[in-house]
Every structure is written in C-alpha cells, then in structure tokens.
Amino acid sequence: MSDFEQYILKPVRNSIAQYPERNAFYIDGVSYTYRQLAERISAIRGMIRSAEKNEKIWGLALHDDLNTYASIFALWMEGKSYVPLHPSWPADRIESIKTQVGCSNVLDACNAPYTDDLLDDWAAASEDDLAYILFTSGSTGVPKGVQITRRNIAAFMDSFWKTGIDITPEDRCMQVFDLTFDVSVQSYLVALTRGACAYTVPYGQVKYLYAASLIQEQHITFGAMAPSMLTYLRPYFDEFDASSMKACILTAEACPVDLMEAWYSCAKNTEIYDFYGPTEATIYCTYYKLTRRGDNLSLNGIISIGKPLANVQAIIIREDGSLVDGQEKGELCVAGDQVTPGYWMNDEKNASSFFIRDGVRYYHTGDLCYWEKDENIMYSGRIDQQAKIQGFRVELGEIEHHARMFYNNNRRVIAIAFQNPQNLTEIALFVEAQQEDAKSLFEYLRSKMPHYMIPTRILYESAFPLNKSEKVDRNALKEKLK
C-alpha cells in the first residue's frame, strides 16, 4: 500500500465504513453523512470513468458543496489530480490556467446519479503522480502552478499527526479557507481521515462573523484560522465563548503575541499553535506550540514559527549560500518529502527556486529568519517583494504588471504592502502620473485579478523619488502611507 493510500484514501474509506450515519460535513446549515459523501464519491467516479477524454489532470470548479469535496476524492481514487478553478475569477485567468495545464475536463456542480459503491479498487498511481496543482500569483502576470504530489500530501499528513494534535470522531472541525488555498486541504483531511465532521464557511459570507457563529453555536473543537480573522473578532472577545475549542492553529500570516494572549481569554480550554509554510512545502513546514504562561518566543511582537515538521529539513543561509552562524539572519530554505517537485512547465522559475546542497534538494522560501534557542526559528520578514493578503501569497510584481498593461506600459507603477491601523496587510498602488480618477484602473484590475490582490489605495505621484542607486525609493513611497 502506498503512503497516499495509507494516510488519506484508506482512512477516509474506513471513516465511511465505520461511521456511515455520522456527519462528514456541515455546509451552509445542512448536515451530510459519511454515507452521503460515499454515494457522491461513487457517482462522480462513475462519471469520470465515462469521460470522453481520459486526462490525468482535471479542472475542478469550486463550490461550497458536497459535490466539490466528493470530486476531490473521486479524482484521487481514479489516480487523477485536479487544478482548482474559482467561479469568481476573471474568465481569462481561468482560461490561462486551463491552457497551461492542458486540461479540457472540468468537474462543475457534478450531479451524476448514484448507482453502485465505487470506494475500493483504487486506480494504480505512483507516489510521484500529482494530487493537485495550485496556481499562485506570478510576477509576469501569468499565474504559476505549484505541483503537489501524492507523496507530498502523504508526508504532510504523517508530519501533522506527529505534532501531537489529536482528532477523534467526536470532533467538530472548522474549514474556513477558500479551496484555492492549501490550508483548506488540511482542514478537511484531518476531519475526514479521523471520522470527524468538517464545518465549512459558505462563499459570500463575512468569514470572521460566520466562523464566530460556528464556533459558538456548533461548539467547534478544532480549527485553523488566519490571525487577521481573530483581529476582526478581537473587539468581541469579551462576549465571545470559544471554550469548546481544544486546539486552534493560527496560520497563513505572521502571528502577533498580543493577539494570541487576548485570544486565550475566550479560548479558555484551547491549545494554540502557530503553523508556517509556503505552498511549495505542502501547507505547513514548521510549527510552534504556544503556552499560557506568557513566555512564548517572539520577535518584534511576532510569535516564533517554531521547529520543522517531521518530514521537513530546514537550513538558514547567507546570500552566498553558506550556512549562518548562531542567531545571524538569513534565508530559510526547506527540504524533504513535503517539498514540491517544482512549478508546472516553468524551468526558469524552478532553476531559481531550488538548489542542491550535500545531495539534498532545497526550496528558497524567500523569508528572512534566524535560529533562536532550542532550535526554534524566528521569522523576520520577506526578502523579496511578496506579501500575504488575507492568507494568500501575492507577488506585488503581478499587480504592477497588470497596472502597467492598463497604461500600455507608458507609466511606471509601484505596488507596496503596508499595515493598516488594525495591523492587517493591505496593498497600495503608486502611479507616476498627475492626479486622475482611479475608477477605470480599479475596474480593469478587478477584471484581471482575484479580489484579495486588488489595491485598497491608488496614489498618484508626478515623479517617483529615487534612492542613491537611482532606483525607485520604495521606502520613501511607503512613508507616504503613514
């Protein structure tokens, strides 16, 4: 039996067999049992088998419904992989992704009739076969695809359980993340592989408000959230009861110490973890378990990202590639079975993002870090021009690319990430031009990018300030945002 079957397919099948009448999902106020999940998986497997084109990679239109989740397992059981396609994305972005991957088959609200159980007899697949491809922001304006293999996912699940977090069939697990974001994979897999129920946040809802209602009304016991969600909830902590939660993961963004200490006031019985990881290292690659004693490791008010997961190796290197000494800062690089085989059809990006050291293949995270006591890792910021917005990684260069296209490359533009008064990350776009109405630029950007990439401010400068190297002085521009 392969590791993917051992850690994912077999446990889900066992959950179905042992707990057919237990709830597997709670979606938009409706509960669905493991039996219903099994029927939808079987029906969709039958439809996949009858497809005219026998493609290895399928597009998956994302909806917050049982069919979407069942489609993932149906594809995996058929030895296939998927690429998420969000209906809210601009049509040209979806077509760009489909063209890159070369897939014509798309599962969209599949309502194939159920006839027979098709949960066994899994199609033959290698551990190096893909499980999914997640397309992230690309600096050229073309989204880049991160390939995640069956080996990557299996290694992640093994690592996850070795952190000590335990999920039982009685648990109620929250899934608040968009299915284009990899933390969603952790959120439903840890529930379904242990016979628990996954409670999802419907699209179109105000996430933090809906999540708060789930925690209190459905007595959620486990969930992963971005710190920004708690930031929005913080004004209500005095009246908010999260005592049902036994474990909570904070992820996707830097984790502020003061926010965690405040969260403890209403998460009275909760063990809190800070999990870190780029998509390229399969969801998470390090973790840090906080304590209520107030002695948590932090840097500039941000919690440590902790130690590498069981199937991850980590080093911190200088610009010349040598290892740092002591608490010297450098770039965090990771290796191991969780690390992606690379970007889809992108030799140039692969060459710059991965390297071999002592026979081990490492990924450049682009994060500035250093080693603290007990081999914990402290996060100090981004080395490059990327930012995390609402948990999504965004390359500012892609925003600049689309803005330049709007101006037919006739104007210089600079995108800058900044912290608003609520300590949340936003994007400002500076345009080198006289003041003008930004409405048409906003509309153009909305037609090209997902909502989380749209700048919240557009500012006009008659001439960009330059630094001593005759480059645009980004720091001077950022000062204008204060």
Describe it.
This protein has 482 residues and is of the alpha/beta class. It has three domains: 1-149, ANL, N-terminal domain (Rossmann fold); 206-384, Rossmann fold (3-Layer(aba) Sandwich); 389-479, 2-Layer Sandwich (GMP Synthetase, Chain A, domain 3). Helix content is 28%, strand content 26%. The protein contains 13 helices and 26 strands. It has helices spanning 3-18, 34-49, 66-77, 91-101, 150-161, 183-192, 207-217, 227-233, 257-264, 347-353, 396-406, 439-448, 474-479; strands at 23-27, 30-33, 57-61, 81-85, 106-107, 130-136, 144-149, 172-175, 197-200, 222-225, 247-250, 271-276, 286-289, 298-299, 302-303, 307-308, 313-317, 330-335, 354-357, 360-371, 377-382, 386-389, 392-395, 413-419, 425-432, 457-461. The strands form seven sheets. It has a nine-stranded mixed beta sheet with strand order 2-1-9-8-10-11-12-13-16, sandwiched between helices. Helix 1 (3-18) packs across helix 5 (150-161).
